[in-house]
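Here is one chain, start to finish.
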Amino acid sequence: MSIGLIVTFATFLGTALLGAPIGLAMIGSGFGYLFATGQDPGLVVDQVMNSLYNSFVLIAVPLFIFVANTMSAGGVMDRLLDFAAALFGRFRGGLAHVNVASNLIFSGMSGSAVADAAGPGLVIARMMIRDGRYGAGFAAATSAASATIGPIVPPSIPMIFYALIANTSVAAMFLGGLVPAALMATSLIGCIAILARRKNLPRIAPPPWRALPRIVARALPPLMLPVILLGIIYSGIATPTEAAAVAATYALALAVLVYRSAGLADLYRIVVETIHGIATVGLIIVGAFVFNFIIANENVPQLLQDAIASWHPSPLLFLLMVNVLFLALACVLDAITMLLVLVPLLVPLAVGLGIDPVHFGVVVILNMMIGLALPPHGLLLFVMHGLVGAPLGEIFREVMPLIGALLLVLIAVTLIPGLVLILPHAFGY
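Its structure:
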């Protein structure tokens, strides 16, 4: 390992341990590398600006963040929760089922696991623990596990980043995530059904049949957002970035014109929250571009490719190694950081072994999402601990059966590429 890489990793670990944001730690280590190797620090700015100017698809990210914030502030969540309750509330453990269903529905508007956990996940968790009907740990664990579905369903921010890095189609990635997301929801609902019988969890009174048309009508406009988004992408009317602009306009029209639930103060808060989200993600992106410059300059991809090639792994063994790597790192690293730093190294290896890049991308993102809910360091578990107040030990214990159900889906998706590729191939990707 060269002196430059040693300085890079030492600076990164030191600043990260001191509590600096990951993006700043990456940028600082980049400058440390340039000083250690005697290169012009202006190269950092040059690499970042060139990368940003050549990444048109990145514009979709702030637009989807805006969509999520607008939908959350625009009174949409209550309508979607009523719809999910009408579908699943009548079953034993009904609110836990509603938790999964609402995350699956709401994920089509956020693309972020943390946003889903802090949005519909928190609302339903509080409903579950009201009057002691469900344990706080089980409610928090259900919300955390359910939130992992979000970034598998379009619009998915991690999928946009992966498509950018792997030079593959955003539309193909969106399609590839639909079947795995349905399997994740089905496996969680099945697991909850088993737990509901063991724990004798309560049912909630279903709405009367005459109320169903009104509930569906109230939920239909926000439910149409993913349909409109995917329709204009796959019909060729718009690119994913242009479709994100259409989605943002549609969300704003719902909140301001249709539901009239967002005033000027709400719009100001939406814009501020969006800017905060963009700044957080943007800092990580800039840091990752600096890291990628260092990795390319040190010829790390070729060295890694030669090392793995010397092992002669089969495609399946390689995917299993990737599963272990990303599940482990997801406990300590941000998903966007892993995508921007590790995927450029691994995609060429996967393609060289004959693995479809869309299949590989969905497997990678699925790993990262499960890792977010994996004890003892899963971010979603700490988010729900902070929001709900349940003891971490109780959350860890309650989430393990749900993690087991998600791992079964991960194994199936890893072993059977057709689960990911059937829809992209059907649409000609």
